């Protein structure tokens, strides 16, 4: 297990704008190695109000996801986006092979149907009186020629089926076809593919993470070994633990601000008071934006506590 | 009312409050070119802030010496503010960058090198400012602001 830890790639599923981790090994890995505990959100279908013992999936903050992505230990799996990208960027060859695979599936379906038909016919024939001697199976004799020129069939019937193909080259394909081949048309059943594996080649696009405004403060704390959990219960954006929350109480309730974002004094007073009330210090942090001279601005953090006077 | 007058009045309110309500002594107004407004510093009647790590070292030292170590008050910085003001992280950073950890005249408290707990009054002391927030009814609330990550006191 230790050897696989090194090149582990955490799969972060982006679903409806949320970053979820479904693999329990990934969950323990990011908690142990990257100090990210995030929030379990899974519940039991029979007992959805039971929210004390939640389980997988684990929901990450955008900041968590971005941090893992920047450390190159994770990737974002965004199904809808991936699908659309693939469909749009499909080249002619992929398209053809996909159509071919659909056709193969339809043939398989036809075979199955024929087989079932033949069986039921045979059964019925036993029951009824044989009126006329009939060749028992008609269809299989038709099939071999069809399967022989599979490729040709696809080429020629390419005009009939289309998968996001522009309609301009359709007549060009269909026009020469009729004289070459008599209209012996394959009557294949329509199918509804349940996967699109055949459409998707290897490799993945790499979706990035958006909306991570608190990232500077977040990674500043994470790099110093702090664990961060949602802070609403203590009245801030984040609650910050000096180690794993299983072992420690939170030290800070933290808010992230922009470098020049004006903070009303009342917010500082109330947050400072609230933080002290829950035995924490109110942490405010912001990063200096990049200038011409310096690229990565320094991050300044301040802690506020009640003075006791 | 000009900004200067406003700041003067604000500073005066805080000075009066410190001296008369909280019994501070040696309260002085400190002006500096790179400070956006005058700061105050003074001596509280009893020690206002003990870092949790310092507290541990004091307790250790007390155990060794087998006697209580009296905690003398230290000079502290005070930043007068009005509740209606809005400050940004950069504004606070500018103030912290302009000051020294120990207010002028406080350095004379010489730390004894072999007593770890005493270093917290000297080189180990972090920058901290008492935010004195004044409301229109002249209520003044006091909050510590520390530079950087400073863990909370055990209270």
UniProtKB/TrEMBL annotation, chain A:
GO CC term, one of those recorded: tRNA-intron endonuclease complex
The keyword Lyase is assigned to this record: yes
Regions of compositional bias (Basic residues) in chain numbering: 122-131
Record GO biological process: tRNA-type intron splice site recognition and cleavage
Residue stretches making up the tRNA intron endonuclease catalytic domain: 217-284
Catalytic residue list: 241, 249, 280
Cell inner membrane recorded as keyword: no
UniProt GO MF annotations: nucleic acid binding; tRNA-intron lyase activity
Region Disordered, residue ranges: 117-145, 162-187
EC category name: lyase
InterPro entries: tRNA_endonuc-like_dom_sf, tRNA_intron_Endo_cat-like_sf, tRNA_intron_Endonuc_cat-like, TSEN34, TSEN34_N
EC annotation from Swiss-Prot or TrEMBL: 4.6.1.16
Coiled coil feature spans: none
Pfam families in the cross-refs: tRNA_int_endo, TSEN34_N
Domain TSEN34 N-terminal: 10-79
The entry's keywords: Lyase, tRNA processing
Known function: Constitutes one of the two catalytic subunit of the tRNA-splicing endonuclease complex, a complex responsible for identification and cleavage of the splice sites in pre-tRNA. It cleaves pre-tRNA at the 5'- and 3'-splice sites to release the intron. The products are an intron and two tRNA half-molecules bearing 2',3'-cyclic phosphate and 5'-OH termini. There are no conserved sequences at the splice sites, but the intron is invariably located at the same site in the gene, placing the splice sites an invariant distance from the constant structural features of the tRNA body.
Family: Belongs to the tRNA-intron endonuclease family.
Protein name: tRNA-splicing endonuclease subunit Sen34
Naturally occurring in which organism (per UniProt): Neurospora tetraspora
Automatic annotation (TrEMBL), chain B:
Key words, A-Z: Endonuclease, Hydrolase, Nuclease, tRNA processing
Pfam families recorded: Sen15 (PF09631)
GO molecular function annotation: nucleic acid binding; tRNA-intron lyase activity
GO cellular component: tRNA-intron endonuclease complex
Annotated TM spans: none
GO terms for biological process, alphabetical: tRNA-type intron splice site recognition and cleavage
Domain (tRNA-splicing endonuclease subunit Sen15): residue spans on this chain: 14-155
InterPro entries the UniProt entry points to: Sen15_fungi, tRNA-endonuc_su_Sen15, tRNA_endonuc-like_dom_sf, tRNA_intron_Endo_cat-like_sf
Family: Belongs to the SEN15 family.
Entry protein name: tRNA-splicing endonuclease subunit Sen15
Organism: Neurospora tetraspora
């Amino acid at each position: 297990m230790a050897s696989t830890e090194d090149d582990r790639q955490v799969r972060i599923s982006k679903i409806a704008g949320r970053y979820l981790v479904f693999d329990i090994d990934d969950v323990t890995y990011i908690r142990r190695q990257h100090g990210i505990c995030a929030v379990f959100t899974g519940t039991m279908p029979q007992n959805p109000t039971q929210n004390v013992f939640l389980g997988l999936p684990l929901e990450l903050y955008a900041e968590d996801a971005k941090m893992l992505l920047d450390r190159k230990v994770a990737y974002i799996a965004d199904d809808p986006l991936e699908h659309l990208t693939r469909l749009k960027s499909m080249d002619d060859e992929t398209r053809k092979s996909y159509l071919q695979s659909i056709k193969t599936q339809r043939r398989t379906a036809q075979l199955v149907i024929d087989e079932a038909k033949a069986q039921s016919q045979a059964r019925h024939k036993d029951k009824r009186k044989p009126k006329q001697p009939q060749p028992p199976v008609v269809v299989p004799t038709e099939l071999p020629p069809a399967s022989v020129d599979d490729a040709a069939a696809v080429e020629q019937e390419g005009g009939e089926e289309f998968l996001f193909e522009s309609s301009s080259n359709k007549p060009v394909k269909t026009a020469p076809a009729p004289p070459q081949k008599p209209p012996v048309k394959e009557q294949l059943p329509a199918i509804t593919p349940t996967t699109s594996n055949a459409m998707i080649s290897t490799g993945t696009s790499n979706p990035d993470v958006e909306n991570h405004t608190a990232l500077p403060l977040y990674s500043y704390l994470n790099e110093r070994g702090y664990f961060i959990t949602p802070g609403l219960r203590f009245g801030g954006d984040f609650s910050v633990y000096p180690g794993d929350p299983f072992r420690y109480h939170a030290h800070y309730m933290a808010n992230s601000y922009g470098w020049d974002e004006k903070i009303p004094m009342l917010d500082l007073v109330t947050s400072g008071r609230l933080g002290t009330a829950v035995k924490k210090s109110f942490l405010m942090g912001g990063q200096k934006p990049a200038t011409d001279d310096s690229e990565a601005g320094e991050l300044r953090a301040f802690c506020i506590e009640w003075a006791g006077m | 009312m000009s900004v200067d007058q406003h700041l003067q009045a604000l500073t005066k309110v805080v000075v009066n409050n410190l001296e008369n309500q909280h019994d501070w002594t040696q309260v002085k107004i400190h002006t500096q070119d790179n400070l956006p407004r005058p700061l105050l510093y003074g001596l509280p009647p009893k020690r206002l802030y003990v870092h949790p790590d310092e507290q541990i070292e004091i307790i250790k030292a007390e155990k060794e010496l087998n006697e209580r170590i009296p905690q003398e008050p230290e000079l502290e910085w005070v930043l007068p503010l009005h509740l209606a003001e809005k400050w940004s992280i950069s504004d606070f950073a500018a103030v912290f960058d302009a000051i020294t950890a120990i207010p002028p005249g406080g350095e004379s408290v010489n730390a004894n090198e072999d007593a770890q707990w005493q270093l917290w009054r000297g080189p180990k002391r972090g920058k901290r400012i008492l935010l004195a927030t004044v409301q229109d009814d002249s209520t003044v609330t006091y909050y510590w602001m520390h530079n950087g990550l400073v863990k909370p006191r055990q209270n």
